[in-house]
Amino acid sequence: MSRPLDDLVVLDLSRLFCTSLCAAFLADFGARVIRLELEPAAPREAEGWNHEADLIHRNKQSLALDLGSEQGRTLLHQLLAKTDAFVTDCSVAELAALGIDYEGACKLRADIVYGRLSGFGPVGPDKDLPAIDELAAARTGMMPILPQPGQPPVYTGAGAMHAGTMLAFGVVTALFHRAVSGEGQAVDVSLFGANMYGAALDIQAFLAIGKGDRLLNPISRLDVSNPMSGSLYKASDGRWVTLTMPDTDRWWPTFSKVTGLNQADPRFDTHDKRTESHRLDLIHALEAAFAQHDGAHWRRIFVEHELSADIIERFDHPANDPQTLANRYVIELEHPSLGRVKSLGFPIYMSEGTARLDRLAPCAGQHGSAVLRDLLGCSEDQVQAWRSAGVLG
Amino acid sequence: MAKALDGIRVIDMTVWFQGPVAAQYLGDFGAEVIKLERPQGGDQARGVRSIKSLEIGDWNQYFLVINRNKKSMAVDLKKPGGKEIVYRLVAESDVFLSNLAPSMLDAWGLSYDELKAIKPDLIYATNTGYGRFGEINRPSFDMTVQAITGIMARLGEPGQPPIYLGMGSGDAYGGIMSALGIVLALLQRKRTGKGQRLDASLYGAQLFLAAPMLQAYLAGDQSAALQSSRKQVANPLWNLYPTRGKWVFVCEPNEDARFAALCRALDAPQLGADARFASAAERARHNEALIELIEAATQRHDDAALMAAFTREGIVASPVNNLADVVRDEQAWRNAYFMKAYCEEVQREVDVRGLPVTLSKTPGEIQTLGPQLGQDTELLMMDLLGYEWEQIEALKAQGAIL
Fold it and tell me: Is the CB of residue A46 less than 8 Å away from at least one CB of chain B?
């Protein structure tokens, strides 16, 4: 079956998990992704599964060039001339030293789509700060308000993944524009920008309102703004229950019944009373109500009554949820030495071009001769000569 | 200036957050996005009045920012005349996007098969809650989906309640994932001439968001699922530390030279001389003791003094800012992550989230903030769909349009 990125060549020069995964995503959807090995490959561990590599480098080919050598850089430039899209998280200085900053790359391939993930964006005083997600998250303003009051700030790691997905979106959008117009361009995303977009509503609220302790300091779960939405309550077995029923009028008749509250309780009989005048009373009533039964009971109730609520789960849930396998969010694969193992799958379903796993992560340099033969027309003798000279790993 | 998605028409039949964000990305880059809403109140997000118990003020930033650059048509699908309008619109469109329940779309005659019969190369995109296949068919919101992914349960100090990643965080991520699926399908259609259906669910996106930790868990690392304490991280040089002011995040590898620099910056020579911390392996072995001692040193300073010392010694670190800091952050404004936009509703410029994806030759743009309900119904019916004025009047009288 065809896939959206068939026949496109992508060169992947990345260090970060999220950028490498972005390139793997493009490979999942059909691109020929050539991973350029930056550092000498660490020896594969004798035992165990390199599960990270088999996610972030799956479906890729690997090429190891000695970029310190003249010949290595020449090959890199020749390869870039055959590249439709370049994906990197290297610094501009590193790329310039290799002659493949955006300007250099354009000289080699005028219509290249040049995707780069940085720490803080392509311009501005902090454009050269390192691409470290923790630094970007710390700048974004959300870390202090995620935990309960009095707790340390929380780093989630979500910003990096968000940035990698933004990079894929930008690159594919630019490829579409190129298909229409013949014009390539630079695509820039940053960990900082992505962290800010993950913090969408809080940041936008503060931009608009310009003040508010509830946006600057953590809010206790027992002081939540809507007792029936964004709230957390503890079940009798210590498991946590979460509710998202912002329009409380719609849910109250059923919800009050299953939690054993009196639907007609005059403290709670309108949305305004539930979320404003008697908000704290309702929180305490629900805190007591949820402590009456265990998590399994509440899950049963939520499913049976189709309530917008659930139990907070750990990773064992998606690992074993038939829903994740049915939708290939988690896949099972045959590992050469370990047999059947589970791995993260694909987040998007497409009826005519869906992702697939063709191969696990390559060994460093595994596809050197194939890549140089297919893309540059090099002979096997030439390839062998470069290999003996140490230009090719 | 040319836009990457010029000439692409999108029917945006989405509500609340995830779906509207997906269409917002397409609109930012030049697609003509037509938001299709019910005449009775439209998208429920139009009704948002407060966020975290704070009044949102005189403009609804929840709705207006993610529905920017869009047109709005208000059409009642339960009226036969209304359905006809949508079918004629589908015939003129490239993408149909909805985050409503598939069963609801089917009931309204908006299934993929029906729309494909009208427009064979249509790209039909859905945002289900839990995926297109399988048994689960329940209402889904950001946090209820986040809850079952396992992301929340592993955050926070041990024993603390689970951590929600932020209001709308999972929806925002689901939105970009959906936009990514749509541009993939557009590119494929450009090459093959074929449309298709696709689904980017909230659950699928959020599981991908958990990739580093979830993959480790799937490979057998049980601890990846559990809360872990900042007092026990393996590398004390890469950690959060309290000061007299803000917390700071120090991001250094566990290397001798970096440790020496940190000790100088903290003015704590006794740490550098302590045999327990003499090598990377020793520092990892005595990590808890070292974290305590570094913490004792950082707490003697405020964050500004500490950051100055870090800069002097080349230590990579950042203060942990709050939202009041980020809205003033020059870097965010310079990169158009924040922008000014004119808000019709209040007749003035307002500050909005800008463009996180920067395209050098076809940059995104904010032309208008979110539309008024049904503001473009009549114009689009006449110009695009070829209705006569009398027909429009009659449909209005039936209540098929606003």
Answer: no
Contact criterion met (CB < 8 Å) for B51 and A170: no
Whole-model pTM?
0.97
- Helix, strand, coil shares, percent, chain A, to 5: 45, 15, 40
Model confidence over B213-252: pLDDT tens digits?
Answer: 999 999 999 999 999 999 999 999 999 999 999 999 999 9
User: How big is the CA angle at B144 (ends B141 and B145), to the nearest 5 degrees?
Assistant: 80
Tokens linked to B332: 């965010």
Radius of gyration of chain B (CA): 26
Contact A80, A87 (CB under 8 A): no
**ipTM of the complex, rounded to two decimals:** 0.98
How many CB atoms are closer than 10 A to CB B100? 16
- What is the torsion angle, in degrees rounded to the nearest 10, for the CA atoms of residue A26, residue A27, residue A32 and residue A34? 90
Residues 6 or more apart whose Cβ sits within 8 Å of residue A354? A1, A3, A346, A348
Q: Which domains does chain A have, with CATH numbers?
A: 9-198+327-389 (3.40.50.10540), 221-234+240-311 (3.30.1540)
Tokens representing residue B211 in the block: 């990739």
- In this structure, what token pair is assigned to residue B144? 């209820």
Look at residue A47 in the predicted model and tell me its pLDDT. 67
Q: Which residues of B touch A344 (CB under 8 A)?
A: 207-208, 211, 214-215, 218
B1 pLDDT band, cuts 50/70/90, is confident
Q: Is residue A1 over pLDDT 90?
A: no
The topology under which CATH files domain B9-211+340-398 is Rossmann fold (3.40.50)
Judge whether residue A48 has pLDDT over 90.
no
SS3 letters across A225-294: CECCEEEEEECCCCCEEEEECCCHHHHHHHHHHHCCCCCCCCCCCCHHHHHHHCHHHHHHHHHHHHCCCC
Angle between the N-to-C axes of helices B211-218 and A17-28, in degrees from 0 to 180, rounded to the nearest 10: 80
Nearest alpha carbon to residue B187 among A171, A207, A107, A362: A171
Question: Domain extents for chain B?
Answer: 9-211+340-398, 230-324
Does A188 lie at the interface with B, CB-CB under 8 angstroms? yes
Task: For residue B6, give the amino acid letter.
Answer: D
DSSP designation for A14: -
Query: Helix, strand or coil for residue B55?
Result: strand
pLDDT given at position A46 = 54
Query: pLDDT tens, A62-107?
Result: 999 999 999 999 999 999 999 999 999 999 999 999 999 999 999 9
Under 8 Å between Cβ of A187 and A113: yes
pLDDT tier, B57 (very low <50, low <70, confident <90, very high otherwise) = confident
pLDDT of residue B140: 86
Indicate yes or no: CB of A348 within 8 angstroms of CB of B177: yes
**Structure token pair of residue A315:** 């990773």
The pair of structure tokens assigned to B335 is 């990169």
Half-sphere exposure of B336 (CA within 13 A, CB side): 16
| Least Cα separation, residue B152 to chain A (angstroms) | 7
CATH code given to domain B230-324: 3.30.1540.10
